[in-house]
Amino acid sequence: MATRGVMVALLLAAVAASCAHAQLHEKFYSESCPSVEDVVRKEMVRALSLAPSLAAPLLRMHFHDCFVRGCDGSVLLDSANKTAEKDALPNQTLRGFDFVERVKAAVEKACPDTVSCADVLTLIARDAVWLSKGPFWEVPLGRRDGSVSISNETDALPPPTANITVLTQLFAAKNLDIKDLVVLSAAHTIGTSHCFSFSDRLYNFTGRVNPSDIDPTLEPFYMAKLKSKCASLNDNTTLVEMDPGSFKTFDLDYFKLVSKRRGLFHSDGALLTDAFTRAYILRHATGAFKDEFFADFAVSMVKMGNTDVLTGSQGEIRKKCSVVNH
After folding, report:
1. How far, in Å, CA of 181 to CA of 146, rounded?
2. Which string of DSSP letters, residue by residue, matches 234-256?
3. For residues 258 and 281, is the Cβ–Cβ distance under 8 A?
4. What count of other Cβ atoms lies within 10 Å of the Cβ of residue 155?
5. Active-site entry in 21, 25, 62, 64
6. 21-24 contacts at long range (C-beta below 8 A, 24 or more positions apart)
7. Annotation: binding site
8. With 58 labelled, which of 104, 248, 272, 304 sits at a CA distance of 20 to 30 A?
């Protein structure tokens, strides 16, 4: 097993490699806005002390931003005719937009016209993980904000119903490999989900729409517990913890659940159908390699955060995250 020092060295090497061509750097704002990380963290600490369950939605928002047009803040844009990314079905359950605006306003007060919404959202996601007792990593910065947000482009988002083939293809389209897939899926260790995201596994697995039409890969006792919470296929309001018992804590329990066939989504269960992802899950289900997983997660988050970014003279620095400047 690699030592902590070796893991840190590998992490830094991966960060440098992934950011070299994108002009991102951890010290990008060292002169123009040296307080940016402190400003963001102050707002995050305040918010999560009052509502710790907000961490997962903010992390999810960063994922959803990066998988559509890259990490350019486009998921934050409003549209008068409801055709922006946030209006698409996969994003209608996103929350935390007002909070992102509040953080951006605080950053603008400290450093006007300097820090992009894309960078603010990336820092928010890192702090959401860290403040949930997960890993900390240096965030390469220097992203610019995009001005285009189109609802039907959210087809690039990995759906909770996807099998391993679809998941691998969607991740590969963002230059993320199968290890990134299993590592980033473990973000489901925090947060909740609406029943409708997985209720077909309980009542309509093959399309027959009846209580016996169940997903046979889901562990029976867990299935019964989910059915007690999600009473029907039409339940659109009930929320279920993705990692029951520790859904506010970033830990390795996700791997334990998936290894026991208690992953909430099709996409979680699908990770047991590939040799590599299954082996990774079983290794970390032991709970013996926390430092290794945390280092892996940091590397994959940096890699995802570097996806199709706008830098230099591309894009803009939005004053408000929900609207373009002009």
Report:
1. 25
2. T--S-EEESSTT-TTS-SSHHHH
3. yes
4. 12
5. 64
6. 22/140, 22/142, 22/306, 22/309, 22/311, 23/142, 23/311, 23/312, 24/140, 24/141, 24/142, 24/143, 24/306, 24/309, 24/311
7. 65, 68, 70, 72, 74, 85, 158, 188-189, 243, 251
8. 272
> Where does residue 315 fall: left (phi above 0), alpha (psi -120 to 50 degrees), or beta otherwise?
left
Q: Residues at the annotated binding site for substrate?
A: 158
Q: How many residues does the chain have?
A: 326
Regarding beta strands 192-194 and 239-241, do their DSSP bridges make them parallel or antiparallel, or are they unpaired?
Answer: antiparallel
If DSSP codes are grouped into helix, strand and coil, which group holds residue 269? Answer: helix
Active site residue 64: yes
What residue has token string 């998988």?
67
What tokens does 286 get? 């032991």
Averaged pLDDT for residues 53-57: 97
Binding residues for Ca(2+), by number, are 65, 68, 70, 72, 74, 85, 189, 243, 251
Instruction: Locate 193 and state its tokens.
Output: 């989900």
pLDDT at 282: 98
Report residue 11's pLDDT band, with 50, 70 and 90 as the boundaries: low
For the chain, report the end-to-end CA distance as a whole number of angstroms: 53
Contact present, 239 and 247 (Cβ < 8 Å) = no
Which one-letter amino acid corresponds to residue 146?
G
